[in-house]
Inverse folding.
């Protein structure tokens, strides 16, 4: 079976084609700057050199058409025709309360995804455009929606409910939803494999640390608490997002500086976090280098973000009632030994002690204490492909909907 995984953003489309017989990816890449005359297609086949092509891409439909032609490029002989694509897995950022798992897309599902635009106005529209375009260009393939929020729908009501007027939840759906669920689920099950234990017996804290970061408490294979909330703004200090703050601060600044809600939203999401702390740097590697060179602000930023990680690990150990493992994943989690070390300092009372030598490695246990600390590369595209396979295994007939 051939599964095409699509991740459509506002001005980009990431793709990866999998052969499920060996669960290997055949080709992957992305198109950036959609809507510009300076778009770029980057594609790579394993064991071949990466290809870059400058072109003009006006919309997602044209982008997907270009991607399909790249997949069928006879030079590589990956597939002869797009008819060889059996299914398409779509990353959908927000599924609200409607979706607790990945689903085959039909008319009803499509309508519910569109209804979730109000929760994710920046993310769901391009996700929907990807589905619509795929239905038009690959109508014979089965389409599956995989939701970032679905894994966290196992949280109990006292965890996801905010202390706000309750009718806001009843009438407007204001609650904690959580994100990065596909990654958290994949990494949790991979951790169970590496630890050689059934996931139903494990209490894990998963630290997904990248430009966007979230931490999740996973008990018996289910999310019971997560740091991101109604939006991806809550929780961790991130590249440009502030994370947890006193909610009165934005109101205070808006009043003093006469800012609009849109202006404040831009500050909290795009000019805060590491970017705001350092005065313009959001790349963790750059921040580490400047901190080591003596920059006090960059050193402070590093201390702030690792302190926040440590707080969540400790809090979630309490929520879990104990700890069987801590996992670091995503760009920062996988590659920053400094962040891992600083985040775990002082946690020996939880059995967490970092092995300095092992901490330089990836996809391994980096601790010497009683509680394993593991570095695991996330693979959201592979996770989506697995989700597609699980959904299709339950379905007997293809479901078709109009484009």
């Amino acid at each position: 079976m051939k599964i095409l995984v699509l991740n459509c953003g506002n001005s980009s489309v990431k793709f990866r084609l999998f052969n499920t017989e060996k669960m290997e990816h055949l080709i992957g890449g992305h198109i950036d700057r959609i809507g510009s005359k300076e778009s770029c297609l980057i594609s790579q086949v394993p064991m071949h050199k990466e290809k870059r092509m400058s072109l003009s891409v006006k919309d997602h439909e044209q982008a997907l058409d270009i991607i399909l032609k790249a997949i069928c490029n006879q030079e590589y002989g990956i597939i002869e025709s797009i008819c060889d694509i059996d299914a398409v897995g779509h990353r959908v950022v927000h599924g609200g309360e409607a979706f607790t798992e990945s689903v085959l897309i039909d008319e009803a599902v499509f309508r519910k995804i569109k209804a979730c635009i109000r929760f994710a106005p920046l993310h769901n529209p391009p996700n929907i455009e990807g589905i619509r375009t795929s239905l038009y260009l690959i109508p014979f393939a089965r389409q599956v929606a995989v939701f970032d929020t679905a894994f966290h729908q196992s949280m109990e009501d006292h965890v996801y409910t905010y202390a706000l007027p309750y009718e806001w939840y009843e009438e407007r759906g204001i609650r904690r939803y959580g994100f990065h669920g596909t990654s958290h689920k994949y990494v949790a099950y991979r951790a169970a494999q590496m630890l050689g234990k059934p996931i139903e017996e494990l209490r894990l804290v998963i630290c997904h640390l990248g430009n966007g970061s979230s931490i999740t408490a996973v008990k018996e294979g289910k999310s019971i608490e997560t740091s991101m909330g109604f939006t991806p703004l809550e929780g961790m200090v991130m590249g440009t997002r502030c994370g947890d703050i006193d909610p009165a601060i934005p109101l205070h600044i808006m009043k003093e500086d006469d800012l609009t809600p849109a202006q404040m939203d831009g500050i909290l999401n795009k000019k805060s976090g590491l970017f705001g702390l350092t005065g313009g740097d959001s790349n963790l590697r750059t921040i580490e280098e400047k901190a080591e060179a003596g920059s006090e602000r960059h050193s402070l930023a590093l201390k702030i973000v690792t302190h926040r990680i440590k707080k969540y690990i400790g809090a979630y150990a309490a929520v879990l009632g104990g700890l069987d493992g801590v996992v670091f994943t995503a760009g920062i989690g996988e590659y920053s030994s400094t962040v891992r070390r600083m985040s775990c300092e002082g946690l020996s009372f939880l059995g967490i002690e970092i092995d300095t030598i092992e901490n330089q490695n990836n996809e391994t246990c980096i601790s010497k204490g009683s509680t394993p600390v593991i570095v695991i590369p996330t693979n959201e595209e592979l996770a989506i492909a697995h989700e597609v396979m699980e959904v299709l295994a339950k379905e007997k007939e293809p479901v078709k909907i109009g484009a």
